[in-house]
């Protein structure tokens, strides 16, 4: 029997990789996308199927996690075997500016989907995956962090995700639903949003090298993260829904680097060498030609920061057979390569203008 999956947040980084992964597995994939005044389907344009074609296996629906009736209608229409709740206002810093919206979308949005499953009597049919996060650990109580480590969220985003985590556990226990949390540590890729630190770095250094940008401004350079590749992590999201019993899992690499280390690794990929001088807000990164190309801008500091995250994926290794395929160096290299390609396109456009340059030649 062909399985049917519904992905919220299908236009995001993970949504795009997961949709591709499930289509390859033979699923019919439905995705929820938000209405936007500009096209917001860049990441899934390669999967798009014309609605006039019959027998489509990739179908998009307009929707929003803040709209209960819309979610109810979509779940009723789709009758999914699996729901992957990836949609969220996912930027930690922005959640301090939009705390109420973040709580509504990321916290109550999760409840709305669980309730849709329950109201429609799909508790025994539909399996539910919740995109939980290492941000739940926040001010860390134990290192490395595992499934049993106590939570201490440090942002409106993390607090909203804490609600989502527990409501998922509660619906599993109260109604016998197959509902589970993937507690995923940071995962990146060339499809990562441009304002997350890794992508901001790879994009900026590529542009600096081509003379399209002068300087990269960053916040907390000492922040430590456990960075993996999104492509590897979506496979785990799927595996979590294929077990006999629903359980929560930490997905991480078990290796930690600082933001500064990430800059160094990306610079190395581009054949640049950065020398660090000064401390705190006075810290600067100087390239091999003596030019200052990295500066600290306090506007990127957060009111409460998560200084360090390091995951212990032992449970996922044992029960899901988890081994991250991509190393940190491979991840950085792929991101730099892709950002260099798009910087080169921008450089050509800048030099020649749109009229005289044919993108496809
Ligand atoms: P992205 O920010 O790339 O994607 C988020 C998706 O959610 C986008 O499709 C976005 O739509 C959609 N969305 C946002 N708000 C709403 C809303 N109100 N209603 C419907 N859709 C909405 O995130 P990622 O792909 O990186 O992450 C996927 C999930 O995993 C998120 O829930 C995130 O919080 C969580 N997570 C991510 C980690 C990571 O390192 N990437 C680690 C741990 C958890 P649009 O394209 O229109 O903006
Ligand atoms: P994070 O990712 O907050 O961990 O959340 P982000 O890349 O935004 O920040 C990582 C660390 O880098 C520091 N930092 C900066 N961050 C950004 N965005 N921009 C900067 O200029 C900058 N300078 C330093 C941050 O302070 C932070 O310490 C991501 C999101 O995908 C969440 O949705 C997800 O839940 C977690 O990862 C796990």
Automatic annotation (TrEMBL):
<dbReference type="GO" id="GO:0070401">
    <property type="term" value="F:NADP+ binding"/>
</dbReference>
<keyword id="KW-0521">NADP</keyword>
<comment type="similarity">
    <text>Belongs to the NAD(P)-dependent epimerase/dehydratase family. GDP-mannose 4,6-dehydratase subfamily.</text>
</comment>
<comment type="function">
    <text>Catalyzes the conversion of GDP-D-mannose to GDP-4-dehydro-6-deoxy-D-mannose.</text>
</comment>
<dbReference type="GO" id="GO:0008446">
    <property type="term" value="F:GDP-mannose 4,6-dehydratase activity"/>
</dbReference>
<dbReference type="InterPro" id="IPR016040">
    <property type="entry name" value="NAD(P)-bd_dom"/>
</dbReference>
<dbReference type="Pfam" id="PF16363">
    <property type="entry name" value="GDP_Man_Dehyd"/>
</dbReference>
<dbReference type="InterPro" id="IPR006368">
    <property type="entry name" value="GDP_Man_deHydtase"/>
</dbReference>
<keyword id="KW-0456">Lyase</keyword>
<dbReference type="InterPro" id="IPR036291">
    <property type="entry name" value="NAD(P)-bd_dom_sf"/>
</dbReference>
<feature type="domain" description="NAD(P)-binding">
    <location>
        <begin position="6"/>
        <end position="335"/>
    </location>
</feature>
<protein>
    <recommendedName>
        <fullName>GDP-mannose 4,6-dehydratase</fullName>
        <ecNumber>4.2.1.47</ecNumber>
    </recommendedName>
</protein>
<dbReference type="GO" id="GO:0042351">
    <property type="term" value="P:'de novo' GDP-L-fucose biosynthetic process"/>
</dbReference>
